[in-house]
Write a structure and sequence with these properties.
The structure is a homodimer of 333-residue chains.
Chain A lengths: L10 H12 L4 E4 L4 E4 L9 E8 L10 E2 L4 E7 L5 H11 L5 E6 L2 H16 L4 E6 L19 H14 L4 H13 L1 E7 L19 E4 L10 E4 L3 H16 L6 E8 L5 H17 L3 E8 L9 E9 L1 H8 L2 E3 L3 E2 L2
Parallel strand pairs in A: 3-5, 3-6, 6-7, 11-12
Antiparallel strand pairs in A: 1-2, 2-5, 4-14, 8-9, 8-13, 9-10, 11-13, 14-15
Helix pairs in contact in A: 2-3, 4-5, 6-7
């Protein structure tokens, strides 16, 4: 294992510390317990948005803290859910008096720990609503999940619900918008290589010289099948078709097409995948009216990509277009 | 070789096509000859900025086309300079009547081809000035270079000169600003792995299980030395110290600290490098007043990082802070 790290046990704290030093105009790092919140703290009268989960998926979630998106993010240990305590403290730091929305990816540890934190917050008179993102169509139930896994759709939920909160909607309404995104977003990913968790010291799974895992999870959980290396267009079809089937898109509808890198894949390859996915959607009469391409929810240095499609209506489009001022996603601010 | 590509010969055209489809509000792709320009074309009365070079370093350069930065970018074949013809056509597309600045990385092919294109443009009555970026302190002369190589500093030259052009400065003044950045910026990088150029089909160089190349070039050119795997702090010292020596920074000065990923390294590792570099500068009394962390000039899927330090004054800081609206760097737009 060769990595740009010091002690494997210090990776998360050292990395989050560096993140805080690099972006003091946008975020503040609370070291104990560890969470990241907006530089200016909670916004009075605004619904607070908190997300979090195991580290190793950067820029998710700390990269999405800032105006128009999250109020706080809680990085757990590598690929490991944060415990309830930092989630509770982040919830308090995000509370501007209008309640807090927890955005949780559907992994058993995250669901349980955010649930406990929500109960503790309610005991301190903070109203908490939770939504659970489960957009990965690859498999039902998985290594760390009952039901579908939460993956790329999470970035879109955070952006769109964040915009709703920023324009002053109340907790019920922000939660409803988040649920609308969750109902209309689907994803699937493929891995060309494994990744290595620092304290494990060896690859999470083995993949042959000439094998690709279709339907990979963001922690290296098994997908649907292993296939021999294939052209990008074929891999794109194998990811996009199940997504489109599950969404039952009709000709004439508009979508946001999000091609995400797993961390170790060149941007040039992501744009090849994007181009073919765009063509497939056009051939079905579906209009790609918004796009996102890049490394937004990663699995350390894993090579591969995922495709996320979100069905858009006017409200979601307007909220997607709203200004956002985070480290990893910035437009108009 | 496992990659998300179709035919190795189509990687650049397919990728640039996807880039154009994904970002029509920011860029337009000219397919033959291949270049990328602003969606709205040249800005009348503004100095045009053109850069380019071999592909494989994305988001450089096409990701920096847009308001406040480049007017056009010319992607060559993978790791291969574009020929004069597309550079000439991009220069014409970028010309708003106030002349065009070529920003060239110091590689023999790029320097020659941009020089020829500049002569051809002058013959068509477009005034062209050129600046050559040569910020890599690792080695004098290299595999494809007489003198020092142009690396991470290029991103900063494009941003800062772009802001000067956008606020209406003339060609002479924009070139002077670019030269000021070039004089005050230094970089050095390290590789933990090689990368594989698609049409070559095998790694550009061999690096042992436990080896790190210190002073790597962005095409995998040899650096200063190979060392056994070491902690991030030590690698950071080995990159930062030669940069600081070459810049002869004094206590009390301000800098922009740019930690760049080579394409295959997790963001979390880049922030560990950033944190230690920040500490080293602070210990020397140098204030890090601006920062950039991420994959901005890459070498396909290479694992590793480079450190770039730019000495700031008020003018450069103001130009760095100016709004920018490109695909890969966006703030205030």
């Amino acid at each position: 294992m060769k990595k740009l790290i010091n002690d494997p046990g210090d990776v998360v704290t050292e990395s989050v510390r560096g993140f805080g030093l690099a972006h003091p105009e946008t975020v503040r790092v609370n070291e104990d317990p560890l969470f990241v919140c907006r530089a200016g703290g909670a916004v009075a009268g605004k619904v607070g948005l908190v997300s979090g989960g195991g580290s190793g998926h950067e820029p998710l979630h700390a990269g999405y803290v800032g105006q128009g998106m999250l109020d706080a993010a809680v990085p757990g240990a590598m690929f490991t859910s944060p415990t309830p305590e930092p989630v509770l403290e982040a919830t308090k730091a995000a509370d501007g008096g209008a309640g807090v929305l927890h955005i949780v990816k559907n992994y058993t540890g995250d669901v349980l720990n955010f649930e406990t934190a929500a109960e503790l917050a309610e005991a301190e008179d903070i109203t908490v609503r939770s939504v659970v993102v489960a957009d990965d169509v690859a498999v039902e139930d998985s290594l760390y999940t009952a039901g579908r896994r939460g993956v790329g759709g999470t970035v879109l939920v955070e952006k769109i619900a964040g915009a709703a909160a920023e324009r002053g909607e109340d907790l019920e309404s922000v939660a409803t918008i988040a649920e609308q995104v969750i109902e209309n977003v689907r994803s699937m990913g493929a891995a060309l290589s494994s990744c290595t968790v620092p304290h494990a010291g060896q690859p999470t799974f083995d993949l042959g010289e000439n094998e690709i895992e279709i339907g990979i999870g963001i922690h290296g959980e098994p997908g649907r099948e292993r296939i021999p290396a294939a052209p990008a267009d074929e891999i794109t079809d194998r990811l996009l078709n199940p997504v489109l089937e599950d969404l039952s898109l009709s000709s004439g509808e508009k979508v946001l097409l999000f091609v995400n890198g797993m961390g170790g894949t060149p941007l040039s390859e992501l744009y090849i995948v994007y181009g073919h996915a765009h063509d497939v959607l056009a051939a079905r009469g579906v209009e790609v009216s918004r796009s996102l391409v890049g490394n937004y929810i990663t699995s350390l240095e894993m090579q591969g990509a995922s495709i996320t499609v979100l069905r858009l209506d006017e409200t979601l489009t307007e909220l997607w277009d709203a200004p956002v001022g985070t480290v990893a996603l910035r437009r108009g601010l």
